[in-house]
Design brief:
Blueprint: H1 2-25, H2 37-41, H3 43-46, E1 58-71, E2 77-96, H4 102-109, E3 120-130, H5 148-173, E4 177-182, H6 189-202, E5 208-213, H7 223-233, H8 235-246, E6 253-259, H9 262-280, H10 284-288, E7 290-296, H11 302-310, E8 318-325, H12 330-339, H13 355-362, E9 367-371, H14 383-386, H15 388-398, E10 413-416, E11 419-421
Parallel strand pairs: 1-5, 4-5, 4-6, 6-7, 7-8, 8-9, 9-11
Antiparallel strand pairs: 1-2, 2-3, 10-11
Length: 440
């Protein structure tokens, strides 16, 4: 009876985990995210620098994916949670609202309390090209005469086509930077594209946004473990994609935002790319062109992160690495239980950091921890875009490259070394009776 009760208890906890994590991580809202505090405070300046060609109520979002490709009955290309051995590239058109003018969209994007929800939807999707199948030997199943030379030529053609597409986009936007978003567990293709569209919109529609969307989104009780292994599966493809776009002369910087399990994927990729660069005798920072690397609510064991990321000195390959944490993240609490983890990186209790750990964190001068213990929703896993204070800090970081500190225009509250705290009224100070003094 005791064994039965214990088994039932584990099953119930697993079911609860699956239910909560599904709600938490299928995260990209189908309605426009809340207006960042920064833009509510300064609506006139919010979208002032948006290029004229981008002042419209829809955006084009390029994507890279190794999800299995399907074609619906109406002929529309779509991608599910299955895996593809080919990395495909294309673009989606995302519409904000229904029949909105640019000015109406700007007003809705700078209003704290909207009269109505602003729906988002993908209206067009087009796949442009794909890499050859990986590994090389997989191609021999379809064509035993296929050669390594043909494989390399096909891959080179894909790289050439990507570079031409990127060059065309840069001519439209005028900024030689890429903003890459890597989603987490249980996200669909739509989720990744729609959130990329919103983030790019609030970043001022500058540079090129890219949604890297890997085979996640199965859902259900076994969905978390399935998606975790699909994260391992996508490492080779993301590594190839990053290597290729970094090699383009037309690109100056690549900024990356990863969420949840997307961080586990990203850290594995960056580690392998750094090892490659070190073996080739080249500077990985110069080769990879990484600007701001941001990890939001990272669902990775802290000890694994230490060995994979810090032990390899990976913060050195980027201009800066910023990690957003929250003690209110119930999804990570359940992930911790599932993995029997000491703690997940995204819920590292910075208010309990020992002096010894503080010295460790301070060893990496361009590695920043932002404690975002703020309200978002019951699950608390998507705070980086649903909370207007955190999204404001994200804009100041990604759009303007500001370092933490009031003297840099990011008035976070300094905790210790490179650990900072964000407050609900951020980036405004002084108008709230319980606001702490700004520190530099």
């Amino acid at each position: 009876m005791g064994l039965r009760a214990s088994t039932l208890r584990v099953a119930c906890l697993a079911a609860a985990f699956a239910t909560v994590i599904c709600v938490a991580s299928g995260c990209a809202t189908r309605g426009l995210m809340p207006a960042p505090n920064l833009y509510v405070m300064q609506p006139a300046a919010a979208f002032r620098d948006v290029p004229e060609s981008q002042r419209r109520s829809d955006v084009m979002v390029p994507y890279a994916t190794d999800r299995a490709r399907t074609v619906r009955e109406d002929g529309v290309v779509w991608y599910g949670h299955g895996r593809s051995t080919r990395l495909a590239l294309g673009a989606c058109r995302v519409e904000f609202g229904e029949g909105l003018t640019w000015q109406e969209l700007v007003e809705l994007s700078t209003t704290a309390v909207r009269r109505s929800r602003v729906p988002l939807r993908i209206t067009e999707i087009e796949e442009y090209l794909s890499y050859p199948e990986t590994p090389f030997a997989a191609n021999l199943m379809a064509n035993p005469e296929y050669t390594r030379e043909e494989y390399e030529a096909e891959a080179a053609r894909a790289r050439d086509e990507i570079q031409e597409a990127v060059r065309t986009e840069l001519e439209l936007h005028g900024q030689r930077e890429v903003f890459l978003y890597i989603h987490g567990y249980n996200n669909t293709f739509d989720d990744a594209v729609l959130l990329t569209a919103q983030l790019w919109h609030f970043l001022g529609r500058r540079g090129i946004p890219v949604a890297y969307t890997w085979p996640a989104g199965r859902g259900g009780l076994v969905g978390y473990t399935t998606d975790s292994e699909s994260g391992d599966f996508t490492v080779y493809h993301l590594k190839s994609f990053l290597r290729d776009i970094a090699a383009m002369e037309v690109i100056d910087k690549i900024h990356i935002l990863s969420h949840s399990r997307g961080t586990e994927v990203l850290t594995a990729v960056l580690r392998e790319l750094k090892i490659e660069a070190d073996a080739a005798g080249v500077d990985p920072k110069e080769t990879l062109k990484l600007g701001q690397v941001v990890m939001a609510a990272p669902d990775i064991d802290t000890q694994v992160f230490g060995q994979r990321f810090l032990a390899e000195d990976l913060p050195d390959v980027a201009d800066s690495v910023t990690i957003y944490l929250s003690g209110r993240d119930r999804a990570l609490l359940l992930s911790k239980w599932l993995h029997s983890s000491v703690t997940r990186l995204g819920m590292l209790p910075v208010n309990q950091v020992s002096p010894e750990l503080g010295r460790l964190l301070g060893y990496f001068p361009n590695l920043y921890f932002i404690n975002a213990d703020v309200e978002s929703n019951f699950i608390g896993h998507d705070f980086f875009y649903t909370n207007p204070a955190v999204s404001s800090d994200l804009i100041l970081l990604l759009k303007e490259g500001r370092q933490p500190g009031a003297e840099h225009g990011r008035p976070l509250h300094h905790v210790m070394s490179n650990v900072w705290t964000i407050h609900p009224w951020y980036p405004q100070w002084g108008d709230y009776p319980d606001a702490p003094p700004a520190e530099d």
